Fold:
Amino acid sequence: MTTATIGAHRPAESRWTPARRELTRWRAKTANATRAAAARAMDFRRAVLTVTGFGFVDASAYQVTVGVGLLVTGASVLVLEWLTSE
Structure:
């Protein structure tokens, strides 16, 4: 085997090859960070929906005139949270 045949099957490395490798690493790192941020946002959304639902249900016990509307709103928010939880 000669030196010419050893490297013949490998593509020549251009000046852009390291930049492509770095871009691939950056994309993976960004995707991981985005997934983590989305998970934190989902946890926050669940907490907000739960507190809102219980708040409406609780307020319905103190205001008799609009109690039914508040109770239905609170129950629907709690059902929405339950249906969208994983």
Summary: The chain has a mean pLDDT of 79. Residues 19 and 25 are 10 Å apart (CA to CA). The radius of gyration is 28 Å. Helices lie at 3-6, 17-62, 67-84.
